[in-house]
Write a structure and sequence with these properties.
The longest helix is centred in the last third of the chain and has 26 residues. The two termini are about 20 Å apart. The protein is of the alpha+beta class. Helix 4 runs antiparallel to helix 5. Helix content is about 55%, strand content about 20%. Strands 1, 2, 3, 4 and 5 form a 5-stranded mixed β-sheet that branches. The protein is built from 6 helices and 5 strands. Strand 2 and strand 3 form a beta hairpin. The chain has one domain. Bound molecules: zinc ion. The site of zinc ion has 7 residues, from loops.
């Protein structure tokens, strides 16, 4: 998956490991990086979730390794697509992403209905949070340089 860097070259989306407070390793953080000018930026749509994750770690700085993809639906979809793309360099990222997004949202909506039929509020809240991570995200927002 690519987007254009401000320097004019193509940025590549990759999953990076972020070290926090020298002790905590956060795996699978989606980051755009430019091989030409070496600038990089966290995928906008997940930036807030990463901030929240870091804030939640502030009180427990023990050594640990966390997968961001396990905490974030969008990162998980991208993680799977990156693995797929590795075996198929000509893959059409944009349509794969849209397809996976739609599948995942439909699955979560089904889960939500099921959890509601059981009256399981904790589960409903969890599914709702996951849906929020995907809502408002379009593949278009990945491929353009708009900053908000
Ligand atoms: Zn650049």
């Amino acid at each position: 998956m690519h987007k254009q860097c401000l320097c004019g070259k193509t940025m590549v989306l990759e999953l990076r490991k972020v070290i926090y407070a020298r002790k905590v390793e956060i795996l699978h953080v989606p980051v755009f990086s430019c091989p030409s000018c070496c600038s990089s930026e966290v995928l906008q749509h997940v930036a807030n979730d990463i901030k929240e994750l870091l804030q939640s770690l502030r009180d427990q700085p023990s050594s640990q390794r966390i997968s961001f993809a396990r905490n974030n639906e969008l990162a998980e979809i991208i993680r799977k697509l990156v693995i797929e793309e590795a075996g198929n360099p000509n893959a059409d990222w944009q349509s794969s992403l849209e397809e996976q997004l739609e599948l995942r949202i439909n699955l979560l909506l089904d889960l939500y209905r099921y959890a509601r039929s059981l009256g399981d509020e904790d589960w409903m809240n969890d599914v709702e949070k996951r849906l929020t991570q995907l809502s408002g995200f379009t593949s278009k927002s990945v491929f353009t340089n708009t900053k908000n």
